[in-house]
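Work Package 3 (structural annotation) set out to generate three-dimensional models for the target panel prioritized at the project kickoff. During this period the team completed the workflow that converts sequence records into discrete structure tokens, so that structures can be stored uniformly alongside our sequence database. As a representative example, we reproduce one entry of 446 residues exactly as it appears in the project archive.
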Amino acid sequence: MDQKLTQLSTFNQKDKGTAYLALLSEIFVSQGTSNIAQDVHALVDHLINQDAGIIAGRQVLSELVKNLTPAAIPDTERRKAIVEDVLAIVQLRATSYEEQVNLLKFQLADILENDEDWSGAARVLRGINLEASQRTDEDKLRVYIRIVRLLLEEEDSVQAETYYNRAASLIHSTSDRETLLSYKLCQARISDYTRKFLEAASRYHELSFVGEIDEDERRYMLSASVTCAVLAPAGPNRSRILSSLYRDGRTSELPTYNILSKMFLDHILRSAEVKEFEKILKPHQLAKIALSANDRLSSTLADDDIAEGASKRTGPSTVLDRAVMEHNVLASSRIYNNITFSGLGALLDLTPGAAETMARKMIEQGRLKGHIDQVDRLIWFEAAKEEDDAQGKAGGLGDVNQDTEDTGSLFTKRWDLQIRMTAAHVESLVQHLTESGLVRSTTVAV
């Protein structure tokens, strides 16, 4: 090989390109793969360091990228080693061979991604100078989306969000359906990883209806939507997405349907059910949360009357913990007219002060209707008005006439409302079962 290269260096500049290309072809065709790595190294080193000419060098490197295929070199590790070796040699004069270096990096990223080295593939792609190369905005967008996807596979949501923001500024440049769907999936996953669970649930659910996506992937997105909805902060907005998911017939086949139905129907969740659901969560969905200094202080004040054996917890410890506790507070408001701090604390496995703090924050944020009587240490729940019912009439399954006579008593009105809503739920369930053909109505002759 050294002899051939020395001979080629005597050629005039015009003929060098053709001669080097012929030698490269000979390396791949006639010699097999036994010494290919050494021969390619010698050729590239000669081109770069022996001043064979930039034009000839670009031609040979471009042809080399085309030849470094699985068909030519079946051994992935050998192919990867050749690409890394060529990049190391060319790096010293990368500005002169920028396009060829970028092509080699794309090829190395493909190899690393196939080996499931997500962080390595992302690192290689991030090293490509997209601004300096002659690439369209749509090409840049595809690279940014790919980097986001790889970083999320590695659970690096901080870096992923940086490249997602770059992709967001270029999304207008494409009308390609596949690129747009990839972007929307990244959008949903970024919301999931940054704990914007309401946004994530809505976006996952939207994607689960897209026909171009594989059936298994759509099922995964539907399951992810349910998971994010369960983890979202309790309140009217979450009730809306829970209603949409509950009415989606596909969710009944998911393992998370039990907890979805209980949350939608405002049933109190028990620890055994929560632990079962916890098994399917990803690490970022089990992230620890820290209480603020003010919340920690207010959670420990005025707790002199804690009964023996009562909980000493001063707040939720994880995202799931907080979601379940807030849901149980909301479920309690559907059952009770009022509840003591200690009673709510016992229900949530918190100190009375911590239970009051959680209810207070939910009331302040408009996620819970009620007021707090600190003298009597009571939380009073207010009946939600019809226009405030985020789930719609009869849980979003039908229309219910709410016209009633004025009885003059607040508690009588609330009791009547609960009876009407229960009857409406039963009626809508029967209607749903009838439409599904699970029950058959009969007419009795009188």
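The longest strand covers residues 370-373.
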